[in-house]
Design goal:
By secondary structure, the protein is α/β, with parallel strands linked by helices. It contains nine helices and eight strands. Helix 3 runs parallel beside helix 4 and helix 6 packs across helix 7. The radius of gyration is 17 Å and the shape is globular. The two termini are 15 Å apart.
């Protein structure tokens, strides 16, 4: 199984590199986040030993269990963050991709001030680009206000935007949503006078489309670990 993971990881990296080069970008601009959702720590550890440097988890509690059993890596929270999990999220994640409301930003700031003197937490703002009522994320028209609120917290470092487009079988269907997130990021950067370098978008089905549209972080699990049970 370790060989299979290493081979699939290498294949995904080559696909990212080829797509980036076709788009006139450097492959080094794109961070591959290997998503271990539902897979046990020993499987995730195999990916790290095969060269994965960045790991993603959807649930805070999974990271609490797995991280001590996995070789060192940068951990990304890519699933919704509940207020009562904020402290555990700060304890276990280096980057939080899913700040989607002012309440969460305020909670993170308070906890950082209280429990982590001197630390700044890298965060991304999640945007509901597909306007799906069942999904987390600030609506595009609320993005400027939320971004300004996050930037008002000195312990939070807003580094970019994140989105999960509507699910479907056609990777091309994600393209307009990825493009919309990139364009929103550019408008926010201009309006706020702040560089927001990161775009976290694209998963196993559509990460090549995401890279072509400017993704700097892609979140890939199934293409590396196989289908989840």
């Amino acid at each position: 199984m370790a060989v299979g993971i290493a081979e699939r990881l290498d294949k995904v990296r080559h696909r990212i590199a080829a797509t980036a080069e076709d788009a006139g970008r450097s492959p080094s601009e794109v961070t591959l986040i290997v998503v271990g959702k539902t897979f046990p720590a020993e499987v995730v550890a195999q990916a790290v030993r095969a060269g994965a440097t960045d790991l993603g988890e959807n649930r805070v509690q999974e990271a609490v269990v797995k991280r001590p059993a996995v070789p060192p890596a940068t951990w990304h929270l890519i699933g919704p963050l509940q207020r009562n999990k904020a402290s555990a999220a700060l304890a276990n994640f280096d980057v939080i991709h899913t700040v989607d409301r002012a309440e969460i930003a305020e909670r993170l700031q308070l906890l950082l001030e209280r429990d982590w003197p001197g630390r700044r937490q890298r965060v991304l703002m999640e945007v509901n680009v597909g306007r799906e009522p069942q999904k987390a994320g600030v609506l595009p028209e609320g993005a400027h206000s939320l971004a300004a609120a996050i930037l008002g917290h000195d312990r939070l470092e807003l580094i970019g935007l994140m989105a999960v487009p509507p699910f479907g079988d056609d990777p091309e269907a994600s393209r307009p949503h990825f493009r919309a997130l990139r364009e929103l990021r550019d408008r926010l950067s201009d309006g706020l006078g702040r560089t927001l370098p990161q775009l976290s978008m694209g998963m196993s089905l559509d990460f090549e489309i995401a890279v072509a549209e400017g993704a700097t972080m892609v979140r890939v699990g199934t293409a590396i670990f196989g289908e989840r049970g």
